[in-house]
Amino acid sequence: MMxxxxxxxxxAIQKKGDYAVVAITKHGTELARKLxxxxxxxxxxxxxxxxxxxxxxxxIQMFFGSVRLLxxxxxxxxxxxxxxxxxxxxxRLSAPLIKDKKSDPAVVVIDDKGEHVISVLSGHxxxxxxxxxxxxxxxxxxxxxxxxxxxxxxxxxDLFGQRFGWExxxxxxxxxxxxxxxxxxxxxxxxxxxxxxxxxxxxxxxKNIRIYPSITEAIAAQPRAALVVTHRVLAKEEExxxxxxxxxxxxxxxxxxxxxxxxxxxxxEQVIIETLHxxxxxxxxxxxxxxxxxxxxxxxxxxVVRKYGWELVCYTPAQxxxxxxxxxxxxxxxxxxxxxxxxxxxxxxxxxNRLVLDKKKSGNVTISVGVIRYE
Length: 375
Known about the structure:
Layout: E1 2-4, E2 19-23, H1 26-38, E3 42-47, H2 55-58, E4 61-64, H3 71-75, E5 80-84, H4 87-94, E6 106-110, E7 116-121, H5 128-139, E8 142-144, H6 148-152, E9 167-168, H7 174-182, E10 187-191, E11 209-212, H8 215-220, E12 225-229, E13 245-249, E14 253-259, H9 265-279, E15 286-292, H10 299-308, E16 311-315, H11 317-321, H12 330-336, H13 342-350, E17 357-362, E18 365-371
Parallel strand pairs: 1-4, 2-3, 2-5, 3-4, 5-6, 7-8, 10-11, 10-12, 12-13, 14-15, 15-16
Antiparallel strand pairs: 6-7, 9-13, 14-18, 17-18
């Protein structure tokens, strides 16, 4: 495909991969082709004067004109941009396009000899640091990463638990808490739920980072900053820990749901939100909604899980009947072939012997709630 770049016009590109590789030199073109052959997630763009004749066959897009006119189109649609040119050129080209570190793509630079792969922008949230490692491994190059948490082998606050799906409640304190971590100030960690294997290095946890068994004990220790991992809504007296703290929501809550045919999404959602409020649990910690396979096409349920991005897991009556239940029901069995839906479904998914809430009936909805525990 040929792309003719003109001032004031947005170029038409064909996006297939997650990352765009852009080359503007002869040697850079060779590196871009090597990356494409070994990294199927990339789309390659290089200057038309370096055409080899097989670009159409390989899906390579050639451009004519200044790369300055190409970058805006790539910046808005790709997860990452890999430029095979100087870091100074990439900084000048990217600067007008930068908006926010939570939405900007990863930006990586490779030198013309392919000796160094450098993380330039969005190292953490955008994934540039991970991209650098992968590209460097393919090219046999040296990865260059300068973010303080990576260099010091400590906790990257904005990525803490991200590989497990943890979410931070608010981004407000990410920067000051990160500063406390890298400046080796006293940082408290309190973890009430979620995966325990979050430490990513072979070296010990830095001495300035201390783990406390409860929020109350962490507050008493007067840390400069805190990382709190819990599915609970904090009590008023516990909120002090967040004066310079980040609250993370691990995906640990399992919802078992049963409902009458045709129950509206609004009613199902309201029961879920009210129940979690009663339990003082955060909706952001919900991992999955579980039910019987008869409800696989239940429109209201499908709308709710789509809205929140939750996993919907369905079980057969035979699977549900294998689970020991606190409140088996002959009535439910007559209609579904299972002695219960919400309770055994939640237990099955979470591999739980006991639930926080065995079963609650509210209107057309029955709900059970469990919390996954990690050793």
